[in-house]
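Sequence and structure are kept together here, with a separate record for every protein. A complete record is shown below as an example:
=====
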Amino acid sequence: MTTHQPNARVALSAARTVEATGAVRHVTAAAANEEPVVDLIGGPFDAARGQQLLREQGLAGLRAAVLALSAEADADGWTLFWSGYATQFDDLGRARADWLRAEERFTQVADALGLELVACGLLQATGLDHQSFEGFDARAQRVAAIGLPPQPIDALDLFRVAGRLMLASERRETDDPVLPWVERVFAALNGPLDGEVRLRAAITALPVLGLALDRARVIDFFQTGAMLAHSVKVSAYGRVLWHLFVVEAQFSEASWAQRLHAELDSAEHTCAAHKFRTLHARALMLRAALVLGDGQVDEGKRQLDAAHGLIDPAHPRDYWSFHFLQSRRALLGGDAQDAWAHLGIARQKQVEAQIPAVRTTPMMMQEGFVLTALARHEEAARMFQHAGEISRGALATPCWCHHHLTQTLQRLHDGVLDEARTELIAGFTQARTINLTHFFHVLPNVAAQVCGAALDLDADVEFARHTIAARALACPDPGIAHWPWALCIRTLGGFAIELGGAQRKAPRKAPKRLIDLLRLLAAWGGRQVDATRVAATLWPDGEVDEGRDALQAMLHRTRTLLGADVLLVRDGQVAFNEQVVWLDTWGFEHVTARIETLVGTDAARGSATTTANDESGEIARRTMQLLALYRGHFLGEMEVPGWALSLRDRLRARFVRSVDALGRRLERLGHLNVAIALYRAALEQDNLADELYQRLIECHLARGEHAQALNVYRRCRELLSIVLGLKPSARTEALVAPLLKR
C-alpha cells in the first residue's frame, strides 16, 4: 500500500538524498495535497540552511519543512531546533519540548552553536511561558557570552538578542548595559523580517525598556509594537503575549491604569476565542494584581477564583503567582494568618519551579509584609535584609528601605526611641532615592504609623508629610501632635490655628467672635455642643432668636474662612468634623487615658516584670507625646473666660497626674536620671506644680544630690510666692527640712 507523505516529510527526505552531492533540489508537494512548493537547499540542514530557508520562504516555508519530521525519534538536533523555532510562535510549551530534545542531541555531538541557540530558546520559554528553571544556570552562561550582533540583523541574530534580553530580565540585571540590545530590537521592528519574529523580540524587550530608553522612546516602542501586534500576519498566541507583557512592563505606571485594563480585555477575549487556558489564567491573575493594587479585595478574589481552574501544573510559576496573589489579597483583607498560609504554598511551588534566588525577592518582600502585619518585626527585618542582599541596583532599594522601617517598628516597640529615630531616617533616606512613598503598600495603617513616628521623633518630617499627602493616609493615632490635618486647633499653651499642616495664626479677616466660637467649641469638647447654649454664651444680651441668627451667620463665616466641611450642625448641635479637624485637647485626653491604663497595669504587675512588659515601648512613646501636646495651660497666659476655667483646671490636673505616674514608674525601675529629665520638662510647662517639685527633690535626694535638691526647693518657693502668694506644701518643706538644718 502506498502512503502519501505530507509535503514537509517529502521535502526533508529529498533534502537528505541530495546531501552527498550538495545539489539544489526543488520538491513539489503531492498533487493530491496541493500544498505549496517548498525549496530546500542541499547540504546539512544546519543553522545556515535553516536561516536561508527562513529568509527565502519565511515562517510558512520553515513550518512546512520541519514540523512533521521533528516528531521522529531519530530527528537530529538542527531539525528539532528549527521545529521549536517555528512552533514557538503558536505554543512555547511544545517549542520547549523540541528544544530540550535538541539540547540532548547537541550535547552528544558537542555542537556549541546549537547549544547556544537552544539556550536562547529555552530561556525565552522559561521567561515568557513560565516554564521550569531547571538547567537555567548552565544555559544562562552560554547566553551571557553572546556578543552583540552587527547591523543589519538577521532572524537568528534577533533570536539571540531576544535570549539575551530575557536573561537580563530573569536575572534582574538592572545594571546590565541593555541599551545596545534593545536598540537592535528597536531597529528591527520596522525591518523586513517576519512580523512574528519581530514581535517576539519586542516582547522580550518589554521588561527592560525602562532601563534602556528614555520616556519618549519607550512610548514610540510601545506604539510600534502595538501596531505590529495587531497585524493580521501575527498569531493570536503572539498577540496575547504582547498584551500580557505590556501589562507587566507598565504595571506600576499610574498613568497607564486604564490602558492596562484594556490590554487585559483584549488578551482575555483572544484567550477565550482560541482556548489559551494557561495564558487566560495569567491574564486573570494580572487583573487581580491590578485591582488588589487599588484596594479592591472582593474583585481581586473574583479574578483569582476564575484563574484557579485554568492553571496548568506544567507551569509551576503560575501556581506560585496564584498563591502569592492570594497572600496579598488576604493581607489586604486583614487576614494575616491566611496570607501566611498561602505563602507557604507559594514557597513550595517556587522550589518545584527551581526559581533562582534573585527571582524570589517579591516572595521575600511579601513574607516581610505578612510578618510585619503579625507584629514579628525582627523576623520581617531579616527577611527584607536578605531580599536586599540578593537584589541588584535600584531593585534592592525598597528591600533596604523596608528593612530599616521594620527595625524602626521594633525599636518603637522596645521603647528605644533614639535608635528608632536613627532607623527611620535611614529608611526614609533609601525611600527618597526612588521617591518610594508607597512603602508597606498593602499595609497603609503600618505606613501611617511609620509616618506618625517620624512626626513624633522629628525624623525627616518633610518626607513623612509628603508621603501622607501622596497616599492620603489616615491618622493612626490622635496622640500624634503634628499630623497634617486639614485644620488643627491648638489650645494648650495658647490658641492657634493650623491649616493644611502649616503653622499659622488665625486668618486676618477672622473676627474676634469667630475666634471665640472656636475656643468655646473646643472648651466644651468639640462634639455635639448644644447650639442654643453656644448662642446664649456668645451673645448673652440678645434675644434667643437674635443669638440663633448671629450663630448661623458666624457658622457660615467660619466655613467660608476655614473650609466648608470643618463644622457639622445637626439636630440643634454643633461639632467639629473629626474627619478633617483635630483638637489638641482630643489628642491630650487620648494620650493621658492610655498612660493611666498602661502605667496602672504596669504598677499592678510589679517592678519585677516591668522591664519585660510589652507595653514599655508604648509608654515611652506616650510620654513623648504628652510633653509635645501639653505646651502650657488651656488658652495659655491670656485672660481666660469663665466658661474655660473648669476645663483649664481639669487638663492641668490630668497633666500633673500623668507625669507623676510616669515618673514614679521610672523611679521604680531605677531610671532616676530619666525621671529627673521628665520632671524638669514637665515643670517647663507648669512651673507651679508643687507635686512635681516634690518628685524632683526626692530623685535628687535618692542620688545624694543635696545641693540640687535645695535648688529645686528654692525655685518652687520663689515661684509659688511670686505668682500665687503661697508657700510650698508641708510635704515639700518636710523633704528638705533636714538639709536646711545643716
About this structure: The CA atoms of residues 531 and 572 lie 6 Å apart. The chain has a mean pLDDT of 86. The first helix runs from residue 7 to 17. The first strand starts at residue 25 and ends at 27.
